[in-house]
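DM from R.C. (forwarded with permission)

"hey, sorry to bug you on a friday — could you get me a structure for this? deadline for the figure draft is monday and I only need the backbone to look sensible"
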Amino acid sequence: MKRIIVTGANKGIGLGIVRRLLSEYDETFLILAARSLERAEKSASLLLDENKTWKNRLITLKLDVELDDSVAEASEKIHSVFDGISEPIHCLINNAGVGDSYLSMQRVLDVNTWGVKRVCEAFLPLISKKQGRIVNVTSASGPNFVAKCEANFKYILTNPNVTWPEIEVLMYECLIKNIKEPGSISPYGLSKACTNALTTCLARENENLIINACTPGWIATDLTKNYVQSTGKNPEEIGMKTPFEGALSSVYLSMSENVGTGMYFGSDCLRSPLDRYRSVSYTHLRAHETRHDLVCRLLLE
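My reply, with the result:
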């Protein structure tokens, strides 16, 4: 049984990832993590209403990625639940994130980048050393940010030998610049670019694991609802996909073979550059149509 933790999984893309793994891979056991245990349990209940056979493959976990104590307690909880199994986790999917325009840069970085680092540090000892995985859900906003940023920032954010201290220094520099020049830097794009760089760093430092980042694509979630409302159209009319469809790349990286490590993938499950946007294409899925790919194609067509 492949045990998979998904953070921020009580709604949106996180819930889509849990639903997709449960429905497409019988060998998976999902740990639905959210900062509110009540919300996590409510979402788990909704899933079980859809399919009662998932009951033995799903548990919930209270996990607030912003808080050291919460992350530590969550790690200890998983250790105790699977007592006797030294490395019980197959994959950690860091999906929790924020991006509302009214949030401070500090808060966005606390959740989207420092939060990912915090969770990875706590759960790395629990991840299987034999092909265990980490998937960091980022965004095309990351490469878009890098494409427009200063040369020294671009070098750090695309350097295959980047270190965590270098990423942290960059974030602090951006925090200071944002105080002097409010609105000059996109907090969300910055946070996702930094998390892509963190992914590169983690993969290099943990060669026995498979660690990648990916974008879910342009998805209708709480993060995008204000934009959708401003257009006066519905998500489908402006080309947005559902959270279930947005789970495609995360599921691919958590379950497929020979995906490589230390890379950033587009929503079509193809490797993408860190410093510019790449248009997506789903036609390649036909070439090696696994049961997962088959479902993907049927949904997309």
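R.C.: lifesaver. The two ends are 31 Å apart (CA to CA).
me: no worries. The mean pLDDT is 91.
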